[in-house]
Amino acid sequence: MRAFLLRRFALAVPTLLGVSFLVFALAHVGGDPARAIAGEKAPAETVERIRHEYGLDRPVVVQYASYMGGLARGNFGRSSQTKRLVAEDLKRHFPATVELATAALLLAALFGMAAGVLAALRPGSFVDLAVMSLSLVGVSIPVFFLGMLALVAFKGMLPGGGRLDFMTDFTADRTGFVVLDALLSSRAEVAREALLHLLLPACALATIPMAVIARLTRASMLETLSSDYVRTARAKGLPVMAVALRHALRNALIPIVTAIGLQYGTLLSGAVLTETVFSWPGIGRYVVESIKGKDFIAMQGAILVIATAFVLVNLLVDALYGRLDPRISHA
Amino acid sequence: MPEFIDVLPARGPSRAWLKVRRSRAAMAGALLVALYLGAAAFAGFAKRPPREISQDSQLQSPGAGKWFGTDHLGRDMLSRVLHGARWSLFIGVVSVGVALIIGVPLGLFAGAAGGAVDALVMRVVDIMLAFPAILLAIAIVATLGPSLFNLMLAVGLVNVPVYARQVRASVLQVRELDYVTAARALGAGRTRIIVFQILPNVAAPIVVLATLGVGTAILEAAGLGFVGLGVEPDTPEWGTMLAQAREHSFMQYPWTVAGPGIAISLAILGFNLLGDALRDALDPRSSKI
Amino acid sequence: MKRWLGCAVMALVVAGCGKGASKEKGPQPPGGFAGEVLVYARGADSKKLDPQAIEDGESVNVVTQIFDTLVAFEAKGTKVEPALATSWTSSPDGMTWTFKLRTGVKFHDGTAFDAAAVKSNFDRYLQPAHPLRAGLTETPYDFLYKNISKVETPSGDTVVFTLTEGNATFLTNMAMFPACISSPAAIAKHKEAYGQNPVGTGPFRFVSWEPTQKIVLEANVEYWGGSPKTKKVIYAVIAENSVRVQRLRAGEVHIIDGVPPGELDSIRADSSCRLLLEPGMNFSYLAINCEKAPFDRPEVRQAIAMAIDKKELLKLAYRGIGQTGPNALPPTIWGYNDKVADYPFDPVKAKAAIAAAGIAGKEIDFYVMPNPRAYVPDPASVGAVVKQRLEAIGLKPRIVSPVWEGGVYLGELKQGKHDIALVGWITDNGDPDNFLFTLFHSTAIPEQNHAHWKSKAFDTLVVQAQKEPVQAKRAEFYGLAQEVMRGETPVVPLAYLPNIAAIRANVEGYALHPMGLVRLKDAFAKK
């Protein structure tokens, strides 16, 4: 097990290095970074001066090496558009995405598992059919369309964007998660407001994982319900519901937990479009804006963070999977 | 934990087909896909051309003669949604084609060669999979500049790993099957084995993946259109239409989002249903559920 | 899971008992503030707040509240009036300008504003090796100030600018945002981070900034021009146009800009809001690439001009709120020649001209920017409408939309990749020179002259106008220049747009400025 994890970890390193190089290359293929920094009205000589000052006239490999050198010291550089430290920007935007993804995952796990269990109790029933159909529809609606629908449907009832009202005087400067920070500083009204702001984007983001989890729970439950020991338990006269929840669900949990973990990685990245629809100040929107703005330093940092999170979450899930199910050996 | 579809040299297509036909979900999927293909085929019969601008009919709500309403330039939404099917089908199929053309040989090559080559190819695949697909696609299109061609290229490229991994896994499986070993023992060359023994056998899972892949490609292309990195802005492409509705008070005129949004959802649903059914039919492990 | 939820609910309840922190009372103007918080919502965040480092409207907007210039544009026009300078004189040749400074003014950090501060600012701006330059690598507008050869301070309240050549626009340039005066002490203190910690002498002081969310400013009660009416200003970012309008109508924000054309009617119909429309100083136009065949021929360019139905375009793509005309500057700018006749909409003649030129069916690249600009709120619709009209005269346009940000779009125009391009301009200083010379003089190729147009006659006229100190004479030169342009048709002007904002009905003291400047000093939301 340990050896397996070590090997996986060792593989993650070259993967991330490759990611960093690919991103770096992308940033340097399209457009002219120096012009992007100089601005639209700057004359040619300014652009050339900037090219030199930023070292953009050096070979790409040298630039890459110096960037990675900085990265090793925790220096992500400064955004070419805003001059802010990219590390600070990431510190601000990444928790917003984690908060959103976590909220979505909680919703998805809760409702997805409940729906899956309900469906599995009476396979073929109306409930089952409804859950299965809805889950199919759920995975098929693009999140940006769903987001727009939600905005239309809850117009005026729920906030349509941002993490808090603008007039609310609160900065999440402890953990970066507004709900948590508000609770930590005893501002319940802020926490409530933050939860309301989370609701629509989290629901929109939750649909796909919810559908996946529901389907998986159902399948996994059905399998366990038909297993011998559950049948025995039922034969002993225990009520179906209790059996299902106490015995079957526990055993069905392994693949479900795995799926939840995997979905988390997907959520972190899938937030790109949701954040655009709901003006959520997360890392997804940050990266899209920096890509479109040719802010290559910000873009490199942000994509690296997303990719790292993605790879690490998957790694963690693998580890967890092995821990939960002793039958799986990673020899 | 990628789910690979097993290779099934033993089972003929007719049995699989029977199984597909028995499944209600599969039929629903087939129906939706047929509807979608029909919309694409007969879009030309729409009363008004999809780009025809009209000064006098801006943002009219759905009603007789204009079932889906009109958009901010007075264009007929029904016609645009129907033509959108044509565009998304084209984009979806070409993108999947791009992914197949690159991914299949890559997987074959890696699987057949093994060793260092295999490891290298798989590392590249890992690197690509470490990006969220939509993000990588956005980065590629923003870099190359938005256009129909670059859109299809980007969506195709980000899906290469899906096919490369599947083909490689299938090759590894097939390689050990008796008749392939036999062919090798008989002295058949590597290329010959790949082309005549392995390729036909990995075809089935690829068909499934490609079916599901068209749905994914449609979704990704629409997502790119939605962030403003899609096709020519006056094109009746669903994602682009949604993005423009978003700029034009969609909260007041919800039909401008309803048409394209529902169309994308149904198309993806269709391909998902069909793909799932094909997978079930071809995959022996799924038979017990 | 259940227990966890229970805990969260408990925590909420418990926390709710100890309500939020009490509000502290800051300094008050005599008589108190007329309003507490004023929320100004816009579509994008500022990039940085160092006046010398910016060019985007969202940054300029906030900078205007925090900083002052030596002279300022008057409340409703383009003439300049005293600001940090109380008076000024120029030598007869226009080469030397002497400003008398206001005394007793302090920067927000408490340091004194004086002649040395003014000199530091301009030296920093114009000398790449200046010690205060840390972090200021790009100064996008410095081309306007390159004619300043030295800045001297004969006394603590006197500054003398010496120019390399006389230029009629020097004084108006001194009223523009890059000429804002920062606290040299604050620049030295914050170095690279000065753009996030701006310190000026303006009506509001900078408090905090949550990037992509909001910027908070607070009234500078000791402002030399009198205290602002509102205690606090919040600049909020709401990217989505429709959502921005909706949140105004819900009363969550007080002022919005970038009102989408499609929402005009809904705002007009809502009694809790007011729509502000004032003639603006901008225009959008089609730049035809005069260096590329077949558009190097004036008759082909004229065919394009005749192909466009500007009335239809105004209605569809500008929602009927703009004006149109034949000239490459808006009628709100003095010097506009209203005797020039526009090309009539005549698709038949245009089609014939295209056929006669032998280019029927020719594929052309039509550049349209992907995101709205203040002078073209809906470029995609302009693209769609114009494309259809060009198709009607036998051309085959393809809309090309490279990303706008990062200078990509304009970069491709600079390389002349376009046949026709949609572009526009908002005045910097209210002078015709800022349109005709800046955009169409041959030396502006390839930077701002997107038509890549060269005309000796035109060049001579706009340079003469630049050197001439008397405005009436300058106007004559500009009038002739516009006639030359009409004949050669390097561009098709499409629309002159009004400035638009929407406010809550209880907002007072806010008016639009013709140059698009936002000034919040006197604005407040009535309690």
Radius of gyration of chain C: 25 Å
Question: For the terminal residues of chain B, how far apart are their CA atoms?
Answer: 20 Å
Strand content of chain B: under 5%
Q: How would a crystallographer describe the biggest sheet of chain B?
A: none
Which oligomeric form is depicted?
Answer: heterotrimer
Distance between the termini of chain C: 46 Å
The fraction of residues assigned to DSSP E strands of chain C is 15-25%
Portion in helices of chain C: 25-40%
Order of SSEs of chain B:
HHHHHHHHHHH
Strands of the widest sheet of chain C, in order across it, are 8-9-10-1-11-18-12
The general outline of chain B is: elongated
Mean pLDDT of chain C: 91
Q: Uncertain regions of chain B: pLDDT < 50 for 5+ in a row?
A: none
**Overall average residue pLDDT of chain B:** 85
The tally of helices of chain B reads: 11
What overall geometry of chain C do the principal axes of the alpha carbons give? globular
Reconstruct the topology from this structure.
The complex is a heterotrimer of chains A (331), B (289) and C (527).
Chain A lengths: L1 H28 L3 H6 L5 H10 L6 H13 L13 H36 L4 H15 L2 H11 L24 H7 L3 H38 L2 H8 L4 H38 L5 H10 L3 H29 L7
Helix pairs in contact in A: 1-13, 5-6, 5-9, 5-11, 5-13, 6-9, 7-9, 7-11, 8-9, 9-11, 11-12, 11-13, 12-13
Chain B lengths: L12 H10 L1 H19 L34 H37 L1 H15 L3 H12 L3 H11 L1 H16 L2 H8 L4 H37 L11 H10 L7 H28 L7
Helix pairs in contact in B: 1-11, 2-3, 2-11, 3-4, 3-6, 3-7, 3-9, 3-11, 4-7, 5-6, 6-9, 7-9, 8-9, 9-10, 9-11, 10-11
Chain C lengths: L1 H16 L17 E8 L14 H10 L4 E3 L6 E3 L2 E6 L5 E6 L13 H12 L21 E8 L2 E6 L6 H4 L10 H7 L13 E7 L3 E6 L10 E8 L3 H9 L5 E3 L6 H5 L4 E6 L3 E7 L9 H10 L2 H8 L29 H10 L6 E5 L11 H14 L3 E5 L7 H7 L5 E7 L6 H8 L15 H12 L3 H18 L2 E5 L3 E6 L2 E2 L15 E2 L2
Task: Throw out a few tags for this protein.
heterotrimer; A: 331 residues; mainly alpha; C: 527 residues; alpha+beta; 7-stranded mixed β-sheet; 5-stranded mixed β-sheet; 15 helices; 21% strand; disordered N terminus
